[in-house]
Fold:
Amino acid sequence: MALYKHVHNRSQLVDEMLDRLLDGISLVHTHGDWRQVVRARVLAARAVLLEHTWLRDAIESRPLATPRTLAHMDALMAAMFGGGLSADLVHHAMHALSTRMWGFSRDALPTPQVPDDPEEHARAMSEFATTYPAIIRMVTNAPHAGAAYDDDAEFAFALDLILGGVEQLHASGWRSTTS
Structure:
């Protein structure tokens, strides 16, 4: 209860805690290629998120963006504008980054675990191969598939994929179409 002498309510407390952590992201370098700047800021957000696991829920539960939340988003956009991207492309890039700009992503749903018992394992894999052949093809042929999941590597891969795609669109003079 002593905290509530300094803040009005729980929401304000969470906002201030979130803003305090976002301050660390603003220390990331802001010079260089726009992709390097955006990547560095997003990975800095990820480092903060991994250190403070409650942060993901806090970000997703906020009813309004705080000033520092807006500042982080503004810095990402400023880097893209600094790279010559159009407002149209920046708009779409921010949507593509989605939660990734905060250091996390929404991944596919968890999949069923294959049984340990060899007979049940074989039966489950046979059923999966019949019902979901593309999943089985990927799992049995892709390097590292089925190995320990490296969330940081997958996060960085997806981030680089998004930023590379945005760069290609920018280089081609892309403009969105109105329907």
Observations:
- The mean pLDDT is 85.
- The longest helix spans residues 151-171.
